[in-house]
């Protein structure tokens, strides 16, 4: 009894381990539910090492365990689910280097307990195939586009149209993930969730589905899904910017810039809890940045944008054909081998050498040779046609597999022919024609093989030449030449404008220096006259009006002087100096007038 209770407590601790670790991260302090949900699910993804498994590896695991042949409503036991998860992690460890191996047992335990808690809350010990596929396809790593394409393939019919009932079932399953991390009140499933995603469309194709799911903003019930992918992309992004709240000299992850406060920026650790300082408020609109550009890059981008050199923004996803792609049928390309394996070939070889087969069987085999030859000729022709149709298949693993199958088939044929060569001498005359036809077939196959190799080499060269355009081709493009000519002309105009501005600046500096010299000379004259003529009335110096201060002409400020002022746009110090010079000139005139009156 004590051992059973101890094992039960250990099992409960394992089931709650992931949730205990998640609570220790203190994600609940995040103010916005979207970021809170995305952070929690990202933590689960990394803790279970699902971020190391992309969608293609997950599809391969589904096929290896036979889930692709089962109906979506089929229920599988927890033990079979554990087998599926085990195959995912064991295959992952085979792909990882020895220095980055994961703990397979711990990962299996964490993910299995999380899936049971999310999808088997009633404790029945069974999950549907669609639940397993929806959860693992959503939580694994890889591109969001690839995930959505796979999900759409599970919800569409043979004509490529989405079945709304299956999409509704997908929402039910995928929205159990936020509920599992205690965010059900914000992102729980409702009956109107489907219509909120597609309110008007009646026929949804793949491109419409991708446009809706990858829009900005996405559907409200799934707004956490693209954010979880953005979190994965910006985890190691560095921003050399100081946070306006915590005064940290740099940021990692997201950067948030206020649209109302000047140069007010927050790191994600300060923005998520809702910290604010100074005139900034949490009600201000913030802009999320996932990268940092230096001022030089911003300036070059602004200049390029003004010159029209910035390329148009690419669409969020490529346009896929409306009709679903049919699976590749290799039956016409690589027919099944006549023998199951090499052991069968050895058995047939032994039986042929031990006892002479009946003439009817030998005759039937020799009569089948022309048909086999025709089949192989058709096989080679179709293979060459396929190579001509798509040069990209040349370097694919499927092509290598097909070649291996062809070689294995020919080896089996040659092994069977070698067995026929060990027959008694009485049968040699009977099989002479058959051996001759076989030699002719081998010669023809060798010629065809050489032709295929030459065709492969030619197609590879054409593909390389097409993918790497030469500079001569670029020079022959009139559009590129015209754009280059316009850019050079614009560059020359800007350089001329800059040189003219620099020349005018030098002239202004020379004029300014001359004016300053005149002012200094005038001040020296006034000082000499003041010391040389003591009879001058002191009221002029004491009654001199003080110049009014002028605001610095910063961006957006309005000058306080009159628009007709000839010193408009000059700084306050220069205006004061000119005012002093004018007053000195007026005093000099008054002195001369007094002298004339006395005379």
From TrEMBL:
Cellular component annotations (GO), alphabetically ordered: cytoplasm; plasma membrane; synapse
Xref: InterPro entries: Distrobrevin, EF-hand-dom_pair, EF-hand_dom_typ1, EF-hand_dom_typ2, KCMF1/Dystrophin, Znf_ZZ, Znf_ZZ_sf
CDD domains given in the database record: EFh_DTNB, ZZ_dystrophin
KW Coiled coil (keyword) present: yes
Compositionally biased spans, kind Basic and acidic residues: 588-599
Highest taxon listed in the record's lineage: Eukaryota
Ranges annotated as biased composition (Polar residues): 551-561
Domain ZZ-type: 238-294
GO molecular function: zinc ion binding
Alphabetical UniProt keywords: Cell membrane, Coiled coil, Cytoplasm, Membrane, Metal-binding, Phosphoprotein, Synapse, Zinc, Zinc-finger
Localisation per UniProt entry: Cell membrane; Cytoplasm; Synapse
Region (Disordered): 523-599
Gene Ontology biological-process annotations: synaptic signaling
Family membership noted in the UniProt record: Belongs to the dystrophin family. Dystrobrevin subfamily.
Classification via PANTHER family: DYSTROBREVIN BETA (PTHR12268:SF22), E3 UBIQUITIN-PROTEIN LIGASE KCMF1 (PTHR12268)
Entry protein name: Dystrobrevin
Source lineage: Eukaryota, Metazoa, Chordata, Craniata, Vertebrata
